[in-house]
């Protein structure tokens, strides 16, 4: 179970608590973040790598999680393609990312943030297209406030 762009391990810990340290790998581009994961979850396997080119063989992962990170990736379609490539058939992909805020005032500030920090928000159809192209089918999607929470399975 790979936690992609795991940061300081907020969701890595949730996964490890539920499924056990030995079944979870934290992946991030930042050594500092991975050091924080090691402090929080001593002994957990971590890997420094780019989500755009996952260092795992084709159809080797049981599950992949990516929360609060797709919106800062330079090529989110490629990240999702990599997840689809790496997942075993029936493997699960859970995604938490941003959508354009529905309230105009909220969208105004979100847009400013996107411009300053070069982040993004996604329309569901975009995510859907990339997830399907990566060989996955969406089983669940909710979009509260300015978030998307998606669960998909590898075909
Ligand atoms: C906002 S944090 C989210 C961390 C964690 N998923 C969470 O929800 O707390 C985004 C993380 O993405 C990582 N990151 C950014 N670009 C990345 C890339 N191309 N490959 C892997 N990690 C990346 C950053 O180092 C950072 O730790």
Q: What is the fold's blueprint, element by element?
A:
Elements: E1 2-4, H1 10-19, E2 25-28, H2 31-40, E3 45-48, E4 61-67, H3 76-86, E5 87-98, H4 104-117, H5 124-133, E6 136-142, E7 147-154
Parallel strand pairs: 1-2, 1-4, 2-3, 4-5
Antiparallel strand pairs: 5-7, 6-7
This protein binds S-adenosylmethionine (SAM).
Residues 5-7, 10-11, 28-30, 33, 50-52, 67-69, 72-73 line the site of S-adenosylmethionine.
Organism: Streptomyces spectabilis
GO biological process, one term: methylation
Pfam families: Methyltransf_11
Q: What does this protein structure show overall?
A:
By secondary structure, the protein is an alpha/beta fold. It has a single domain (2-154), classed as Vaccinia Virus protein VP39 (Rossmann fold, 3-Layer(aba) Sandwich), CATH 3.40.50.150. Helices cover 35% and strands 29% of the residues. The protein is built from five helices and seven strands. The chain has helices spanning 10-19, 31-40, 76-86, 104-117, 124-133, and strands at 2-4, 25-28, 45-48, 61-67, 87-98, 136-142, 147-154. Strands 3-2-1-4-5-7-6 form a seven-stranded mixed β-sheet, sandwiched between helices. Helix 1 links the parallel strand 1 and strand 2. The longest helix is centred in the C-terminal third of the chain and has 14 residues, at 104-117. The radius of gyration is 15 Å and the shape is globular. The model has no long low-confidence stretch (mean pLDDT 97). It binds S-adenosylmethionine. S-adenosylmethionine binds next to helix 1.
